[in-house]
Amino acid sequence: MRADGDDACGAVGLGGGGLDNSKDYQKCNQTVFQNNIHNSSNNDNDNTFQNSIHNVRENKPGSGTPGGSAPGKSAGTRPTGEPRPPAASYYVDTHCHLDSRRFEQDSVEVARRSLAAKVKMLTVAAGVESSYKAELFAQECPGVRAAVGVHPTDTAGLDELGWSEIGVLARNPRVLAIGETGLDYYWKDSPPEVQKEWFQKHIELALALAKPLSVHARDSVGDVLALLEPYFAEGLKVIWHCFVAGKKEIGPALDFAVKHGVYLGIGGLATFEDQKPLREHAAKIPEALLLLETDAPYLSPRPKKADRNEPTGVIRVAEVLAELRGTTPEAIRAATTANAFRVLGEW
Q1: Which residues lie closer than 8 Å to 253 by C-beta, 6 or more apart?
Q2: In the chain, how long is the greatest CA-to-CA distance?
Q3: Where do the H-state alpha helices sit in the chain?
Q4: Backbone φ/ψ region at 10: left (φ over 0), alpha (ψ -120 to 50), beta
Q5: Which among 256, 277, 265 has a CA at the least distance from the CA of 336?
Q6: What is the predicted pLDDT for the residue at 63?
Q7: pLDDT digits (tens, 9 = 90+) for 34-70
Q8: β-pair partners for 182
Q9: In the beta sheet, which residues pair with residue 204?
């Protein structure tokens, strides 16, 4: 998604387990946290969120800061002694935007509803402020983890100060990935050379922290792959968000992904019957590289094209993938969850 809220994917052109028997999701406080997430920039009295930002910038421990995880918790882990249900019993939405304006009235309830449906979430940032919000979500809501970074269409306004703040946030153990980054030539907000410069910096940060990169490519597949290729030898891990390409590009793009072990996020577009090249190639993706995503609140799966997508949309995506691949939704859930935990770490 774009930082201004417009969908930039385009077709062509709360953790824990045992949620059926526990109330873990209630730890995310609806009345306080909801306001902190969505009203932070407009509320001078919002001490919780502002203190969180201050502490992150100063690299101090505490809620919403690197090193500020609850006692007994770390990235991808649950408290010592807490039962761990089978990973395959959950879906993982590897790309959603819980800080979106479209969720501003009920983002916490959306997260709770998703967890009740056994869907864990990676909320992915699109800018500096968005990264703070994603990090705070990951700190405060069980079952949610974060990715931090700046969407390519927003890079024209990025400076070194903002980038340094991304670097601090990225070190939080509950921040599991870097992004959303990449190249977007459809929108004209940021010049291609500026996008490439910041894309490379995201790549370097991901390598330095040994965290996967969440990559966006719109009308830019050739340049994205060319920029990524030299870094695989250095151990770069990549999640290709909203995997899609034109008819002539999608075959070579899939070959590239297989060659370099790129994980491919499949979302609502695969449920659109007119997306024939995507649906054909989604059936060919090696099981070990397949991931589920929604890009919520965007790209609602068919047949219901809702005004707003939610992380629970991965359930419908899994059903359609099962049809395309000749298997069951349960098998898709088990494989994609195992893949998500392999590339991101389990939580």
Answers
A1: 221, 225, 243, 245
A2: 55
A3: 30-39, 47-58, 107-116, 128-140, 160-169, 192-209, 221-228, 247-260, 276-282, 313-325, 329-344
A4: left
A5: 265
A6: 36
A7: 555 555 444 433 444 344 444 444 443 333 333 333 3
A8: 216
A9: none
